[in-house]
Every structure is written in C-alpha cells, then in structure tokens.
Amino acid sequence: MRILVTGGAGYIGSHTCKALTHQGHTVIVYDNLSTGHRELVRWGDFVFGDILDTQRLRACIRQYRIEGIIHFAASAYVGESVVEPGKYFRNNVCGTLSILDAMRDEGVPYIVVSGTCAVYGSPDNMPIIEDTPANPINPYGASKLFMERMLADFENAHGIRWISLRYFNAAGCDPDGETGEWHEPETHLIPRALMAAIGKIPALEIFGGDYPTPDGTCVRDYVHVSDLADAHLRSIDFLSKGKKSHIINLGAEKGTSIYEVISTVKEVTGVSVPYIISPKRTGDPPILQADSTKAKIILEWKPKYSNLNFNINSSFLWINKYNK
Ligand code: UDP
Prior knowledge:
This protein is of the alpha/beta class.
C-alpha cells in the first residue's frame, strides 16, 4: 500500500518507515523537520511540508495516490506543554484537524495516529486499561485526547476509520542501529541516563525522589520503539481490511522506576550513572503502567524487544554509533 507517514523523520516515525518498507509498503514521509531529521528519512520518499498546510497535504495525497495515513507529527514533551500549551493545541489538535480535512476532501479512508498514555492523567488503578476514564493532567495529554474526539466525530460524519495507539514510554533504538532516538535537546530518561554514564552531561537529574512509589521515583512502562513500529503495521493491515476503529494501549506491561533504569544503565555500560535529585516536573504522574491485552487480541501484537536491558542496550548502540 502507499502510506503517507507524517513525522516520518522523527523517532517512532523513522522506525515505522523501516518496518513498513520491509513489509513491502510504499512510504512517503511528510515532515517539516522542526524536530525530525532528514538523515533519518532512509525509507521512502520525502516531502517537506507542515501538517497545518492542508492544501499541501491534499496535493501530496493526490500526487502519490495515498491509500492510508500514519500520523506521528506532533509536539510531544510533557514539560514543554505545561509552559507552552498553545504550541500543543496548534500542532496536535489543529494539525490533526488539517489532516482530517485533507483526508475527507481527497477520500483517504483510514488513519493510524500516535495517542498517548498521558490522556489517562494520574489514574488510581494500575495497570491501565483503555476504558479507564481519560482525565489528562497536562496540555500534551489534553491535546491528544481532543485529537481522538475529532477522529470519532470525523468517522461519524465522513466515515474515516482510525486507530489511536496510546503509547506508554517509547524506548530503545533500531536493533540494527539504522535509526534511533535523536531529540534536540534530548530530554528523555534513558538517553539522559546514558549521556550521564558516558560523561556527556555531568549528572542525570531525577525529577522527584519522594513520589508515592516503592523507591520514591516515578514508575513508567518502557516499550521498545520497534515493537511500537510493528503495532502500526498491524493497525494499517487491520484498517485496510475494512475493520472498525479502536483505541489501543501499547506498553510492555511492566512498571520500571528511575532507579531501576539507572542500575540497568550501569549493567549495560559498566559505569555508574551520576545523579542528583531535582524538583518534580509539573505534569508527571507517579505511576503509569499499561494493560496491553487489547493490542494482543485485536492486533495480535507480540512485543519482541520490550525489556529494559534491550531498551537500554539498543539505545547505547545508537549513542555509540553517532556519539549523540
Ligand atoms: N525523568 C527524569 N530525568 C530526566 C528525564 C526524565 O527524572 O532527565 C523522569 C520524568 O520525570 C518521568 C520519567 O523520567 O518520570 C520519564 O520521562 P521521559 O521524559 O523520558 O518521558 P515522558 O514520561 O515525559 O514521556
């Protein structure tokens, strides 16, 4: 199939482009390179464009006779969303609206989007199932929830089918080292911990050491990016068979604290991670852990790489290769 991948020059997008190409799909990356990198577009054609530019999207859909869309292009930093909410509603809500308008006008029948566990806010019960009430506690989560509401309304009105994959914490890099995590600045925990281990930053800041968790640090569910990519392929296949829309969690179903990440980084690199305890980051819930039963049933998704050691090992491979 001919798939348009918005944000295909980014972290999860580039891994998905590789997986799509290996499965025989034709990939067209649509990206404004605001956070993505041209160097990561190694699978498929590249179109420079902004998702807010509906006319450009329409022209691209027509030119490449696009059959389905995978939509990654978004702003995705919890902390930044708290201080710059407008950017999040513009890019994530208005941006998705622009894509949906283009799909309606050009007759593209389905879309797979990047949802997030941030829509759940800080729920009482773990693990989190999809029916857990959405109650976001930061603008990032709120913007992605609005996106899902728009998808449902566009389906009612225009018949566009969709799957929102609510990722927990994407982690790791391509097992072959062909693409990886490249954020500027890098803010995510695993790469920051590795950077501290190899001396690229003086110390890892741990945002909060007195959370109501077993060791006082935040617990997250780290799922390998190649497993996420695989779920997108399965979602496109699913929708291409005419099946109905879904919201689906994607997580490794294992809670990992920041101290556990630090000790696994030591195991992998052989070096202790220097760290300091810093104030909590606004918008961070103490624990997020997925129940991914639905992905396993609906998509027959079987995560292959999602264990902490491999997540960190594959990131270390990438960091060593490119010394980022
Ligand atoms: N975190 C941290 N220090 C860092 C980066 C992240 O303590 O330098 C914590 C953050 O507060 C959260 C967890 O690590 O509890 C995962 O954060 P990350 O930014 O990797 O992903 P997010 O959960 O924001 O998507």
